[in-house]
Each structure stands twice: as C-alpha cells, then as structure tokens.
Automatic annotation (TrEMBL):
Keywords linked to the UniProt accession: Membrane, Mitochondrion, Mitochondrion inner membrane, Repeat, Transmembrane, Transport
Chief location bin: mitochondrion
Residue ranges of Solcar repeats: 22-113, 122-219, 242-334
Gene Ontology cellular-component terms listed: mitochondrial inner membrane
Keyword Mitochondrion: yes
Superkingdom classification of source: Eukaryota
Family: Belongs to the mitochondrial carrier (TC 2.A.29) family.
Transmembrane portions of the chain: none
Protein name: Mitochondrial carrier protein
Species of provenance: Chloropicon roscoffensis
BP term (GO), one: transmembrane transport
InterPro entries found in the cross-reference section: GDC-like, MCP, MCP_dom_sf, MCP_transmembrane
Membrane topology: Multi-pass membrane protein
Amino acid sequence: MATSEEAGAERGARNGTLRNAHPIVKELLSGGTAGACAKTAVAPLERVKIIIQTSGVSHSGRPMEPASIGRVLRSIVHSEGVRGLWKGNGASVLRVVPYAALHFSAYERYRSWLLGLGYLGKTPVVDLVAGSAAGATAVAFTYPLDLLRTRLAWRTSAVVASSSGGRHHHHRATMASVLAQLARKEGIPGLYKGVSPTLLGIFPYAGLKFFVYQYLKGVYMEGGRAKEGTTGEEKVEGERFVSTPMKLVFGASAGLVAQTITYPLDVVRRRMQVQDLASGDPSGKIRSSLQGLRLIYRTLGVRKGLYAGLSLNYLKVVPSTAIGFAVYDTAKEYLGHRTSI
C-alpha cells in the first residue's frame, strides 16, 4: 500500500509532466477544463433557454408563442425530476470540451501570429480578429455535436406544449438515437443544418467577447487602479495581471455585450436546427439567416421572437463566461504557462 509520501511524489511527477508539456497542450487542457466547468454550472438554464427559443416551432406545425421560464422549469421537474434539468448535458459537455479547447488554443495561436505580423499593433483589434477566427475554427470541428444537443433538448417541448392540456409525452431520446435518425433522414449534410447562422453569429460573438474583455482589462490597468502590491493585482514574471475577481467581472461584461448584439442569430440557428422535425406550412421554413430574421420578426416580433429567452440567457452568460475566463487563466497558471488573457 502506497504511503502518503509516495502518493505525493506520484502526484508531483504527474504535475511535472504536465508543466513540461507543449504550450498548445496546456492551452487545450486549460480550455477544455474551463468549458466543462462553465457548461455544467449553467446546464439547467441552457436547457430551458433552448426550449424557449424553439417552442415557437410546434410539433404539429401550428404557430405558438414561446413558453415562460417558470412553465418550462415546472414541466421539466414534473415530468423528469430534478435530474431532467441536466438532460442533454452529457452531449453538451462532449461538445463544449473540444470546442472550448480549440477556441482558446486557436485564439492564442491566431493572436500570437497577428502580433508577430505587426499590422494591427498591440491594440484590442488583434483580439477581435483572433477571437473571431478562433470561434469559426472551433465551430467547424464541433458543430454536429451542438446540433445533436439542441435536438435532444427540443424533445421536451412536446411535454411543455401538452402539459396545459393534462397530457404528458415522455421521450427517451438519446444522443445515439437522435444521431441515427438524423443520419437516416438527412445524411451527412444534416449534421451541419443551421451552420450558416452559427458561423455568422460566432464571428462577431467570439470576436467581441475577447475584444471587450481585453479592452476592459486594459482600461482598468492603464487607469492606475491596479498598482503593484495592491489586492487588485497579481505580479507574474514582471508583468501586471488583473486579479481573478476582476477577471470574473470583465468576463461577464464581455459575454453580456457580445450576446446582446448577436442573440437574434442564435435564435435563428436553433429554429433551423429543429424545424425539420415538425410538420407544417413549408412557407414558414427558415432557409437563410437573413430570411429567418425577417420571418421571426414578422411573426413574433422582437421581444417574443428575436430576443425570446434573452433574460434567461443573461443569467446563463454571466456565470458561464466569467467561469470560463477565470478557470482557463487559473489552469494555465497552474500548468506554468503564461497567459495572454
């Protein structure tokens, strides 16, 4: 039986191996960890948000207004129990771990490359471009998993739609069954249903998120509020860094700004992902991002259509983005890798 000293030595050896790993490996590990922590923490809110976004797409094809947050929560807990709030989180984590790992690592690589070119200087514009490119790169590799997660969560809308009439339909869909059905009916192209509004939305969202975060951090430090030796600053290898609490604030603010601007495109994406599961008038189908924006605005308006579920999304974005930035930073520091964030 191993002694505590031997166990400690073994842990130290493992930590030393990770600290000696390639910078890209450290970025991938840190990004994946950050994504898993952030996504699991807000999984219930994410599922409710998806149901609200897609509740205007009825199973019968009849138009219907999005359900309320309270109604969706009560319906899920009543029909599936508290664990139902995390239904689909496995698919979500499977998607977000590689997505976050690729997103953060690609951002670091693109940022380093752009700084090396020198055309954009060292302004936050570098973060805007690097973040946008990194977001598109991550989406290209992980979009099918996002589609499966959305369709799995959408199954609950049948319960929500019928609960007022006293009828409850239980769906025991799994990732495997949803994937099999999708492949059988739509083939490989079906795995990228709705990818155009996703890419259109991720460019400004990912870019703005990193841009706002770096801009706020820069203003904070240049304003002289983070002076060496104060509690608002950490000193790492001669370079001043904002403290973790301030990173949480800046990360949350960045997420709010980016999400507010790009949210309508997220609604269009969710509708495109599930509309083929419902029967109805073909004229009501979304065929492109711009046409989808016009259609949703015309039929449901701004508050109940383009921004359906936005208030709930704010509750999700604040902790999710904040946790993502903070965990990524902390993990990289633990692995002995200097961070640009």
